[in-house]
Design brief:
elongated; mainly alpha; about 75% helix
Length: about 150
Amino acid sequence: MLFPLFVVVTLLEIYVLVSVGESIGGFSTVLLVIITALIGSTLLKQQGWSTMAKAQNAMANGQTPAFEMMEGVVILISGVLLLTPGFITDMLGLLGLMPWSRSYFIDQILRKNADKVFSQNNPVFTQKTRSTKDTKSKKNDALEGEFWED
């Protein structure tokens, strides 16, 4: 699935670059790609530090910075898209750096993968059994955790 997507995106990028180059000229097209990369890298740096500050603030308040970590992943992918020359990948990268669209992407990712994460067959949430010797000595162990409702 990844290879056909890579090929299609590459062909679309070439088509868009050639079309824009015919319209505004080759030098202007290259200059426009460089300008979008500079703007994107500046925005990438600013959003990265902002997300890092939010994660540190969440940890200082005793909370898990799960959403901030997801934001970091989207920012990382957006940075890779911005480094790839082309207008389509630059637009997707810039969308990933905008806070309102970044939260939309994260919500969509979580909605699509919630069944996989919270299913009964997920080995992350299964309890491992202890040996019988260990179970007899610690029968009333308390299990700590957090629960919240949205």
